[in-house]
Amino acid sequence: MSETTWFIAAIVIYMAVMLAIGYWSYTKTDKYDDYVLAGRGLNPFVAAMSAGASDMSGWLLMGLPGALFVTGLSELWIAVGLLLGAWANWKWVAPRLRSYSEVSNNSITMPSFFENRLRDRSRALRVISALIIIFFFTFYVSSGMVAGGRYFEATFGGEYINGLLIVAAVTVAYTFIGGFLAVSYTDAVQGMIMFASLIVVPIMALIALDNPSDIWTWAASNDYGPYTDGVGNPDYFNMIAGVSVAAIIGNLAWGLGYFGQPHILVRFMALRSPAEAKQGRWIGIGWMFLCIVGATFTALIGTVFFSQNPDIAVTDRFAFETIFLDMGRILFHPLLAGLVLTAVLAAIMSTMSSQLLVVSSSLIEDLYKIVAKQLPSENVLINLSRTAVVAVAVIGGVLAVNPSDSILGLVGFAWAGFGSAFGPLVLASMYWKRLNAPGAIAGMVTGAVVVFAWGNLGGSDIIYEMVPGFIAAAVVMVAVTLLTSPPKDEVTDEFDQAVRLSKVFKEDEDVDIETAAAQVKGSGV
C-alpha cells in the first residue's frame, strides 16, 4: 500500500474510536445538565487529562515547536509561564470553584456562576460574559480548524480546505451526540496520544542523527530552516540575549490566562468533589511538563534533523509549524507514522470540542434560557445545544478559510481575551468578599476591550496584550467595586458558606459534596 493509504487507515481507526466514545457518551446522557457538565461526575484523572488536552491544542505540537525552531529557546518563557499558571489554577481556583459553584445555585457555566455569585438581577453580567465567550472562542475554534487544514497539507500533501472540513466534521459529530461526557473522555484519550507521541518522536529523531550531540550547538552556528546566511542563529540557546524585558514579561504572562479560560474552569466545576483537585493538579501538571519537554526537544533536534539530509525539508516554510508532523512521517512505517501523527489531530480536536461545547452552553444556558418565556423540555434544550455546536463550527470554519495569522497568533489573541476579561474576576470571586456586580462588569468589559484594541492597534509588538488587559481589568474592577455599594448580606453569607465548604474537604476528603453543601447552607455559616 502507498504511504497515503496507510495514513488514511490510521486516521480512520482514530476517528472511529472518537466516534465510538461519542456514541457511548450519548447512551449515558439523558438530561440537559449531563450534556453540559456530565452530572459533575469526572474523576481527577479524566478531569486533569481533558483539561490539559483541551488547553494545549494544536499549538503544543505545531505552534510551539515552530516558534522554538525559528526563534530559539527564548520562546520557552511561554512554557515557564504556562506551567506556573496551570499549577496556580489547580491549586487556588479548582477546589474553591468546585465548592462555590455547588453552593451558588448549582451553577453549571461560568456566566451563570458570576450572576449567581453576585446576585446580579440585571442579567447584564451573565449576558456580557456569554458574549465575550462567544466572540473569543470563535477565534479559538478557527485556530483549531487552521491547524487541521495544515495537518492534512503536511501529512497527505492534500488540500487545506479538505483537511479543515474533515477535522471539523468529526469533532462536531462526537461533540454533537455526546456532549460534555464525550468531550471529556475523548480529551483524556487524546491527551494520552499526545503524551506518547511527544516522547517517541524526538527520541527516534535523536537516534537517527549522525551525531546526536550536535543538537546542543548546531543551530547557533549552522544554517537551518529560515537561516541561510551561513551563521545560523547565534542566540538560539540563550533565553535572554536579544529578548527584551517586555517580551519576557509578555511570555510569562501567558500563565495569567489560565485563571480565565472557560473550557478549563468548567473541568473544575465538573469534578466529583473539591478534594480531588489535589490529585488532578499533580496528574495535570506532570503531563503538561513532560509534553512541553517533548515539544522543546522536537524543535531542538529538528534544527539538526532537517539539516543533515538535504533531501528532506519542512513542509511549512513560513512558520515551520509542521516539523513534528514531518519528523513522524519520515521516521516511521506509514501505519505507525499515521498513528503517531494522530497526536496532532488529538490536540486539535480536543481543544475544538471543548470550545464548541462551552460556546454552545453559553448560547443556550446563558442567553436563550434567560429570554425564553417558557423553559423548554430537557430534550429540546439538548437539541438546541447541539444546533449551537454546528452553528459555531460553521462560523469558525468561514474564518479559517483564509487565515491571516499563525496558529500561535490566533491562540494568543483568544487566550489573552479570556485571561484579561475573566481572570481577575474569577480570582476576586473566589477570594474577595467585597466584590460586587458593577465592579465585576466594569472589569470584565475593560479586559476584553483593552485586549481587542491593543492587539488590533499594534500594541502586541510592544508587549503581549495579556499584560495591559489583565492589569487594566483588575484595577477597574477594584476601583468600581470600592466606589459603589457593597454586596448584600446574602452575597457575603454565601461567600462564607463556600469558604466553609472548601475547608470541610480539607478535613475530610471522603464527605459527599451535596450533603456537605446542604449542611453548610443549613448552618447559616
Automatic annotation (TrEMBL):
InterPro entries found in the cross-reference section: Na/Glc_symporter_sf, Na/Pro_symporter, Na/solute_symporter, Na/solute_symporter_CS, Sodium:Solute_Symporter
Entry superkingdom: Bacteria
Major location category of this protein: membrane
Pfam families in the cross-refs: SSF (PF00474)
GO BP terms: proline transport
Bilayer topology term: Multi-pass membrane protein
UniProt subcellular location: Cell membrane
Listed GO MF terms: L-proline transmembrane transporter activity; proline:sodium symporter activity; sodium ion binding
UniProt KW keywords: Amino-acid transport, Cell membrane, Ion transport, Membrane, Sodium, Sodium transport, Symport, Transmembrane, Transmembrane helix, Transport
PROSITE patterns noted in UniProt: NA_SOLUT_SYMP_1, NA_SOLUT_SYMP_2, NA_SOLUT_SYMP_3
Keyword Transmembrane in record: yes
CC per GO annotation: plasma membrane
Segments crossing the lipid bilayer: 6-24, 68-90, 127-148, 160-185, 192-209, 236-259, 280-306, 335-359, 380-401, 407-428, 435-456, 462-483
Catalytic activity, reaction form: L-proline(in) + Na(+)(in) = L-proline(out) + Na(+)(out)
NCBIfam families membership: Na_Pro_sym (TIGR02121), sss (TIGR00813)
Annotated PANTHER family: SODIUM/PROLINE SYMPORTER-RELATED (PTHR48086), SODIUM_PROLINE SYMPORTER (PTHR48086:SF3)
Similarity annotation: Belongs to the sodium:solute symporter (SSF) (TC 2.A.21) family.
Function according to Swiss-Prot or TrEMBL: Catalyzes the sodium-dependent uptake of extracellular L-proline.
Protein name according to UniProt: Sodium/proline symporter
Annotated organism of origin: Corynebacterium marinum DSM 44953
